[in-house]
Amino acid sequence: MTREVILPAHRCRYAPAMDVDRADTPRFEKGSTDGHYESWFLRANHPERPDAFWIRYTIFAPKNQPERAEGELWAIAFRAGKPPFALKTEIPMSDCHFGSRGLDVRVGDARLWGEARGGTAEGRLELDGRSLRWRLRFDGARDPLCLLAERLYDAPLPKAKALVPRPGCRFTGELVIDGESMEVHDWHGSQNHNWGSKHTDEYAWGQVVGFEGDPDAFLEVSTARIHLGPVKTPWLTPMVLREGGREHHLGGLLRAARNDGSYELGRWTFAAMGKGIQVEGTFSAPPDSFVALPYRNPPGGLKTCLNAKVARCELSIRRRGERPRRLVSPHGAAFEILRDARPGEHPASLPPEA
User: Fold this and answer.
1) pTM of the model
2) Assigned CATH for 18-340
3) Which of 7, 95, 217, 341 has the most CB atoms lying inside 10 A of its own CB?
């Protein structure tokens, strides 16, 4: 499936577009034995320096054990010239709140709530004498972005879903890392939502909010496959690119299978084609800019998310009848890899092995 819609510069919508409140509505069903994970996360980058943050409010419920459902709170600060600073805690569900519609989340004392084009986040994480505190305001978001076809978000498959209720936000506020304040002023970012009964078995995921010379451009892309017993599906590389007032949705099942994607720790290349357009790109980041995060899988076992938020992204865009266009984000890209856990990757603050 390939969609290209040309729109006024201040809007990026393809029909049908998901309502922002529906995009953020919890999919967790209390008491279900199916197993479930669900996260609402914020990410943003300093417009000039390789500084960034990632904050994640999460539900985790193991399969066949609904009584063990609980909340999780994660946070990472990426600071130029310093190792990433990462913390995580687990909170009883009795001390969490997830509203019935829209963005209304509380995990312990940490809150996240939304409005049509923005919202507010506040919270604190403490572990072993280390602490990270945040109070953030975000606004100016564009229309929700769906990497999958909208109908698949209510379908049994795929088991893992992801979308961006508020892409292209601007963040203002403060992070306090072990007592040291980091001002956040006009950082570029997004508010995201994902959920499922099982994590995708293998993937690379990337997102860029603004490129040099095109601060309103937005890229969401992944390369992933699932395991069906001993059988592995082909690699799928869906992509959505918003730039120049257009949205290129190169993400249908057949199209994603024809697109190219190949990754390893620190580097990921991909290419996608649609009607009259070809997009090629690269994400790159040094291994020590990643944090290895332990993700519990609802069916059992542990995955590792290698998480970097100050990666480089380069895009080459070719349209029929137009000059090629190159977009670069030197250190504003999110780049994650999910794989099976390996010995020595945890606790969450430990950088991954190559």
Assistant:
1) 0.93
2) 2.40.370.10
3) 217
